[in-house]
Amino acid sequence: xxxxxxxxxxxxxxxAEVEGTLNAIRNGEVDAxxxxxPDGDQIFTLQGAETPYRILVEEMNQGALMLVPDxxxxxxxxxxxxxxxxxxxxxxxSSWQKFFPRDKYPQLExxxxxxxPVSAPKELSLQAADGSFCSVQLSLRxxxxxxxxxxxxxxxxxxxxxxxxxxxRKTSRELAEKNGQLQAFSYSISHDMRAPLRAMQGFAKILxxxxxxxxxxxxxxxxxxxASAANRxxxxxxxxxxxxxxSRNQSEAATLDFDKMVREMIETFPNLRQANIEIAxxxxxxxGYGVALGQCISNLLVNAIKFVQPGRVARIKVWTExxxxxxxxxxxxxxxxxxxxxxxxIFDIFxxxxxxxxxxxxxxxxxxxxxxxxxxGGQVGVESEVGQGSxxxxxxxxx
Length: 399
Fold this sequence. Notes:
With 399 residues, the chain is α+β, with helices and mostly antiparallel strands. It contains 12 helices and 15 strands. It has 4 domains: 20-49, no CATH class; 51-157, Beta-Lactamase (2-Layer Sandwich); 166-248, Helix Hairpins (Orthogonal Bundle), CATH 1.10.287.130; 254-397, Heat Shock Protein 90.
């Protein structure tokens, strides 16, 4: 009986020990257990519920601080110590002011007096122990959790982003400079090409006018091809020059009248005066560049007359529609129309779509329209059906 009492007492003692250990584990009071067995002692480490969060804060790429209301640092992770080039033990317990420029102190102190999310300066310079600076972004939030009153601060290093932005700006400047040089070169070459071309056109014209009847049919046909090719090249050079001028045009934006510009354009071109054009344009004003918008309107009107079936009288309708804050100009024709698959590339440079091979053109007109409209912050588009004509539109901001 005495032996049974002794064994029962021992079992109760062991049970109490196990219960105490389990309670300690539940409360996070122990980090490891030692288990004794036939093979000796074994150590089992225990991870508390807060361990993953602690690892997350320590290993994240942003610096992290916990401050009391007077700015004293209660906690800092290793990333902040690395950014500030200060040993971690010297960070904790110090004031966070030592890590920022003096002229930002009033701003930081105001942030420490706020409650809830704090609108910290978007960008600050973090001052390291060696006197160097790096650009950082702060995110502050006041807290009052489990009796702890203070602020949590996340510091994001902007060094790489600033380097990327500087590199991008440098590349953009270089591209703009190269583009300007290329445009100047294109303009110069195109302009200089017109002199020998005019000579070719002049001599071809003399041969056609004075010696055409003296030539055999085949040489006469070759001469016609030469004259036609020279004229086509001249139109192409003129379009290239116009495109270069459009890119280089630095005129200031102004308020423009669609109705006035359309009517002036019709009066300027004889072939437009002879066409059947119906105008229903409002007197509302838009915001844009006068020369560029004039080129857009003239290109659309000339195309509307050009691309009609032989023997058909060109009928053009021009009108405007109002949208929220914008004005859309429509130019509708009764021409040959455009295939659906070609409508997506009709505004590409040098684009010549199916069905228009027999019509004169360089493929630059609509690309210039798109460039000019986009330069003015607008949009351009087309609606068309083969054999039923097309409806081109340009949309600009109201003045």
